[in-house]
Design goal:
The chain is an alpha/beta fold. The chain is built from ten helices and eleven strands. It has a nine-stranded mixed sheet, with helices on both faces. Helix 1 crosses helix 10 and helix 4 packs parallel to helix 5. The structure holds iron/sulfur cluster (2 copies). The site of one iron/sulfur cluster has 13 residues, from helix 3.
Length: 290
């Protein structure tokens, strides 16, 4: 990790579809001297909103897969019997089902099984219109190990970060799994985007429990707060004693979807949102820089 002349902010949500990327792209647009990373590698979509061009593309190898050498295989059937992932049929290994556990290799009497590095995804180093660096990655269909890809794309971004960069803004993966843990390493502040629903509150609690383990300060944005003001109040009541700031309550607005459909950030699509996100950005800076 290079010397930290920058602060890192990750935008998370307990699940997908809460408006996380809308918030991440809007804050990215407002921040200056930044690097932007989309670590939602299972469903990357910042690149659908930004104008950018690709500087470099990299293959990502997430793990090993088994393969059977038909010239050595005596077709005893042992490998198919022991494979818990049903990846072997008629003495051939399915690339998408194989988890690389190595069990088949251990039982093969003919030394007919070997392993190869399998390409699991790609990631791209790009440049935005204002010449900020932007990174995003995509797993190939059926591939796992997205946490490792999140770490890899962040590592690539750190390697190329310039001295004048002050902010790294990360669109995180949804949920609380391994990719989220990977997105949190080295982060100074987490913006949690939630919705006023029972499941939104449940997911928020799980996320806050996770952040307590990492000891990272956070703030909450309640998106679509007016679809259920009672639940919105419950969320506010929950976060207050936890010492978590309420960054904003945003009304339900179809423009959020329309902006993405038109490949624009919400503040490009509707300039009335510039003040909303500038205020959020200023509040985040106050917490981090104090
Ligand atoms: S490495 Fe594991 S998952 Fe892959 S084929 Fe062998 S036993 Fe099945
Ligand atoms: S265990 Fe080895 S020899 Fe037996 S079927 Fe599988 S690859 Fe062929």
């Amino acid at each position: 990790m290079p010397d930290k002349h920058y602060k890192q902010i990750v935008i998370l949500s307990g699940k997908g579809g809460t408006g996380k990327t809308t918030v991440a792209t809007a804050l990215s647009e407002i921040a200056e001297a930044k690097v932007v990373i989309d670590t939602d590698v299972d469903a990357a979509n910042m690149h659908l909103v930004f104008d950018y061009y690709i500087n470099s593309e990299y293959d990502y190898y997430g793990g090993k897969k088994a393969e059977i050498n038909p010239n050595k295989c005596s077709q005893c059937g042992m490998c198919e019997l022991v494979c818990r992932f049903d990846a072997i049929k008629e003495f051939k290994v399915s690339r998408t089902s194989c988890e690389g556990c190595g069990f088949c290799f251990r039982v093969c009497p003919d030394d007919a099984i070997s392993f190869y590095e399998s390409k699991s995804g790609v990631y791209s180093a790009c440049e935005l219109e204002d010449q900020s660096k932007f990174y995003y990655a995509q797993l190939l269909a059926g591939e796992g190990n997205s946490g490792k890809l999140v770490s890899e794309i962040k590592k690539k971004a750190y390697e190329q970060v310039k001295e004048n960069v002050k902010w790294i803004i990360i669109d995180g993966p949804p949920g609380i799994g391994c990719p989220v843990n990977a997105s949190l390493s080295g982060v100074d502040f987490v913006v949690i985007v939630t919705e006023p629903t029972q499941s939104g509150l449940h997911d928020l609690k799980r996320l806050i429990n996770l952040l307590e383990i990492f000891k990272i300060p956070s703030g909450v944005i309640i998106n679509k707060y007016d679809i259920n003001t009672d639940m919105s109040n419950s969320i506010e009541k929950f976060i207050r004693p936890e010492g978590i700031s309420l960054l904003a309550k945003i009304s339900f607005d179809k423009k959020f979807i329309k902006a993405i459909q038109n490949s624009k950030t919400i503040i490009e699509y509707d300039h009335a949102y510039i003040d909303t996100f500038k205020t959020i950005w200023n509040d985040i800076q106050k917490v981090i820089l104090n």
